[in-house]
Amino acid sequence: MVEEKINKTEKVEIKNEVKETKKAVIKPEVKKTESKPSVKKPKTSKAKTEEKKPELERIYVVPLRKGYMKVPQYKRAKKAVKTLKEFLAKHMKVEDRDIDKVKVDIYLNNEIWFKGIKKPLNKVKVKATKIDGIVYAELAEVPEIVKFKMARDARRGTKVDKKALDKVVTQEAAEEKIKEERSDKTDKKEESIKEKVSIDAKVAKQKIDAKEIKHTANPKSTKEDNMSSTTMRKALKK
Question: Of 69, 81, 157, 178, which one is least surrounded by beta carbons within 10 A?
Answer without folding.
Answer: 157
